[in-house]
Every structure is written in structure tokens, then in C-alpha cells.
Amino acid sequence: NAGVMQNPRHLVRRRGQEARLRCSPMKGHSHVYWYRQLPEEGLKFMVYLQKENIIDESGMPKERFSAEFPKEGPSILRIQQVVRGDSAAYFCASSPQTGDNSPLHFGNGTRLTVT
Amino acid sequence: GENVEQHPSTLSVQEGDSAVIKCTYSDSASNYFPWYKQELGKRPQLIIDIRSNVGEKKDQRIAVTLNKTAKHFSLHITETQPEDSAVYFCAASRSNQGGKLIFGQGTELSVKP
Predict the structure, then answer these.
(1) Which contiguous run of DSSP H or E holds residue B12?
(2) Which of B49, B100, B103 sits opposite A42 (nearest CB)?
(3) Which pick of A3, A104, B36, B113 has the fewest CB atoms within 10 Å?
(4) Nearest to B76 by CA among B50, B44, B100
(5) CB contact under 8 A, A106 and B44
(6) Percent of chain B with pLDDT over 70
(7) Cβ contact (<8 Å) for A43 and B103?
(8) CA-to-CA distance for A8 and A83, rounded, in angstroms?
């Protein structure tokens, strides 16, 4: 049973470009969470999605960041007009439908570098 | 807002000694407390978790204790081994927020042979 799959593993973007990060949850999981980890810091919650719904986006920056989890296909975290401060590791996690306090299992992350 | 404080930020022990990492949380409605281990450049991996209806949980060399009154929980690793070296994160969440975890700042554990 494959775990949470994220791609790409590494992404380099110049300032002003767009970054798209993809996450496929574990089989049978319909809840997806995105977290950001700045260098040598803890993980910060960004957004919680179910299929076609954003449940909690309280951790998302107000501008340039958006997330979706369509009916078909992976969840996408999109960062427009990237700046150097966006350089971080972005981790996705998923949980099953009955996900009240279900353990979260993280993907291997996407390491974004903005030059 | 919700906050989780974790101490110490770094911890160095000799192989075979015990290691203890402590966390406090601010949200009294929190009822789920996982611990993650993250090796350099890798994903956080769940190592143990505890729910608020339990005071202690053990899994081989790892144990977690929870004091709801003090809003405090701790990770205990006994008989440490060099492969235990990593960054450890505590986290807290409440049941009506799904998987929205509030993480501590992390503890870098170094186990010296």
C-alpha cells in the first residue's frame, strides 16, 4: 500500500515564477493536509482539504497561495509569484474519511528553492 | 491562539542513557498528542501518540506521559542508541479540527556512542 506521494521532490524557481506542488493521498484517504517547514523550524499547518472542499485554510498566507483537491487527481498547492521567503519544505499528509484525530502520515515532501 | 512549547531545543546523551523531551500546550480542548521523529532531509515519522483519556503509553523503549491538568506531555526514550539521533517534534490537536496539528519547535537529539 503506497504511502502519501508528493512530487516533485525538489523544485527550483526564480523569483516571480509559479510553483505547483502535488500530493496524492494514501489509498482510501479523502482528507489532505499541507504543512510548511522553514529551515531548522517546526511544521506549520497551512490548509486542510477534502475532495472538492477546503475545510480549514487558517494557516495559508492571504496572498499568492492557493490549494485544491479535485474530485479526480492529486491535491495541488500553488504558489504564485514566488519570493525567497517561500523557500521551504512543503509536506502533505492524509487521513481516512473517519479522520477525527486519525494519525497523520506524511509524504516525503517537496523542497522548494527560490533563487 | 493555540501554541505548543517544546524543551529542550537540543539534547545530547550517551548511548544507553535515557532522554526526556517535554511539551506544554495552551488549548485546553486539545485531546490528541502525537510525537514525530524526523531525520535530516526526510519526512516526519509518527513514533507514538496518546489521547487525553490515557495518562501513559509505552512502545518498547519509547513512552509518552500526559498530564491534562498541567497541560503537559513528555516523551521518554530509554536505552538510547545512535540511530535515535534525529529531531523530535511534539504536536497537539483537538478532535473537531481533524488533522490540524500544532507542532512544537522540535528537539535535536544527539546520541553519542
Answers:
(1) strand B10-14
(2) B103
(3) B113
(4) B50
(5) yes
(6) 98
(7) yes
(8) 19
* Spatial contact of A107 and A3, defined as CB atoms under 8 Å apart: yes
Contact A105/B46, CB-based, under 8 Å? yes
- Running along chain A, 115 residues long, what does each successive block of 10 average in pLDDT? 89 98 92 92 92 92 95 95 96 77 87 97
Q: Do B101 and B34 contact (CB within 8 A), yes or no? A: yes
**Residue that has been written with the C-alpha cell 500530493 in this structure:** A23
Q: Is some CB atom of chain B closer than 8 A to the CB atom of A39? A: no
C-alpha cell at B101: 496539528
